Predict the 3D structure of the following.
Amino acid sequence: MPNPELISRLSDYIDEHWTGPRVLMMREVSKPDYLPEAPDDIVECSIAYSEKELSDILSRAGENFPARLARMIEASGLSDPEVYQRAGLDRKLFSKIRTSPNYTPRKKTILALALALHLNTDDTQDLLRSAGYTFSPASRSDIIVRFCLENEIFDLFEVNDLLDRFSESAL
């Protein structure tokens, strides 16, 4: 078990650096008398999915990055050479990405692939997650790429120019 000092330092580091949503730790307390009782007729809420939608969601849940990328390439109607050329990737690297289930490309490579495939922000986030990444609100380059996706700026040279103008490294 990690020592308490290390846990405290880690907690301070997270508080200092993390810009994501905060989760409050709550301890059990007795309910003050001035709070009203909850009604007995609380209605449960749920999200309804059709059987096909649920099946699609569950089938993609365990999908690794190469499988998800292959599915997105197929949906785009583009050939592999069109994708890796648009993304500015070498054929050998692209082949490694497509065929090695345990290989995880760099985040910038995945973002270049998302631009090449003309993905929207949700699909890009989905592709990033399948490789263990996500968009970060603390990253100016991520914010710039999100802006480009939302504004349908998919040309790699144009995106790299925007990144350069804000002193961020190219994809």
In short: Confidence is low (pLDDT under 50) at residues 5-14, 21-29, 42-46. The chain is about 55% helix and 0% strand.
